[in-house]
Amino acid sequence: MSERRKRAERHGRRGEWIAALYLWLTGWRVVGRRVKTRKGEVDIVARRGRTVCFVEVKWRATQAELAMAIDERRLRRVADAAQLIASRYARPGDDQRIDVILIAPWVWPRRIVNAWQPGG
């Protein structure tokens, strides 16, 4: 693994830790981390009441770079992975959604609630 890739991995893990802390501080319980499927990975699975949230975390070095951190292709991959694992985390009647948490140094995390709508 290249040094650049190792650094990106460290930053990604740190971003996921910050996102998990942010979720906890806002009343969510993290029930899964880095859940891998054949379609991709869900960074964080969180629950609050009757809502299960599949969270994609993006860390960038600057706040300006966050604008380009997430796109439809990445969201589709998360949605496909979430669909495969939903039965593990959601109970009948639970609401499910996909959120994105964008993180940059020295900036409060930005959360995009319900970032993926079925059908694109």
SSE layout and pairings?
Blueprint: H1 3-25, E1 29-37, E2 40-48, E3 51-59, H2 72-89, E4 95-103, E5 110-112
Parallel strand pairs: 3-4
Antiparallel strand pairs: 1-2, 2-3, 4-5
GO molecular function, one term: nucleic acid binding
Keywords: Endonuclease, Hydrolase, Nuclease
Protein name: UPF0102 protein BES08_03845
Q: Would you kindly provide a written description of the structure presented here, covering whatever features stand out?
A:
This is UPF0102 protein BES08_03845. It comes from Novosphingobium resinovorum. Keywords: Endonuclease, Hydrolase, Nuclease. It holds the Pfam family UPF0102. It is a single chain. The chain is α+β, with helices and mostly antiparallel strands. The chain has a single domain, classed as Trna Endonuclease, Chain: A, domain 1. It has two helices and five strands. A five-stranded mixed β-sheet has the order 1-2-3-4-5, with helices on both faces. Strand 4 and strand 5 form a beta hairpin. The longest helix has 23 residues. The N and C termini lie far apart (34 Å). The mean pLDDT is 91.
Structural class: alpha+beta
CATH fold assignment: Trna Endonuclease, Chain: A, domain 1
> Compute the gyration radius: what is it?
14 Å
User: How far is it from the N-terminal to the C-terminal residue, by CA?
Assistant: 34 Å
Count of individual domains:
1
The percentage helix is: 25-40%
Overall morphology: globular
Number of DSSP helical runs: 2
Point out poorly predicted stretches.
none
Oligomer: single chain
- CATH architecture label: 3-Layer(aba) Sandwich
Task: Order the strands across the largest sheet as they lie in space.
Answer: 1-2-3-4-5
Instruction: Summarize model confidence as the mean pLDDT.
Output: 91
How much of the residues is beta strand, in percent?
25-35%
